[in-house]
Amino acid sequence: MYLISRDFKFDAAHKLEKYHGKCEALHGHTYKLRVTLIGIPNEEGMVVDFVQLKTIVQEKVLKVLDHSYLNEIIPQPTAENIAKWIWQMLEESLTFSNCKLYEVIVWETEDCFVTYRGG
């Protein structure tokens, strides 16, 4: 089995209304996103074409989240809830005969991130 990943970035604002602290106020982040698929190479020798992966992520996720106010899209947009939302937006489009979505990682800051593997 192979794990194939591609990284992306998007900018967005949010506030954590159920959190009591600094992040309760409106603020923004440059998020980093890693999408990973697991599978075996197809007849072309690839698990997935990186261009195809980029196109799907841009259409299903980045087009919606980049430069947005996340609270209008995702309830209580913590890194955990953002990762789960991204998984839900991608799972169907990233399921092929030879591979499927394996995990989504969302970095809220350079050193704080969450990994989601469905479920």
TrEMBL record:
GO biological process: tRNA queuosine(34) biosynthetic process
Cross-referenced InterPro entries: 6-PTP_synth/QueD (IPR007115), 6-PTP_synth/QueD_sf (IPR038418)
Catalytic residue list: 23 (proton acceptor), 67 (charge relay system), 108 (charge relay system)
Gene3D superfamilies referenced in this protein's UniProt entry, alphabetically: 6-pyruvoyl tetrahydropterin synthase/QueD (3.30.479.10)
Keywords noted in UniProt: Lyase, Metal-binding, Queuosine biosynthesis, Zinc
Cofactor note: Binds 1 zinc ion per subunit.
Positions that bind Zn(2+): 14, 27, 29
Catalytic activity: 7,8-dihydroneopterin 3'-triphosphate + H2O = 6-carboxy-5,6,7,8-tetrahydropterin + triphosphate + acetaldehyde + 2 H(+)
EC class: lyase
UniProt pathway annotation: Purine metabolism; 7-cyano-7-deazaguanine biosynthesis
Transmembrane annotation, as ranges: none
Gene Ontology MF: a single term: 6-carboxytetrahydropterin synthase activity
EC number(s) per entry: 4.-.-.-
Highest taxon listed in the record's lineage: Bacteria
Cofactor: Zn(2+)
Family to which this protein belongs: Belongs to the PTPS family. QueD subfamily.
Protein name: 6-carboxy-5,6,7,8-tetrahydropterin synthase
Upper lineage: Bacteria, Thermotogati, Thermotogota, Thermotogae, Thermotogales
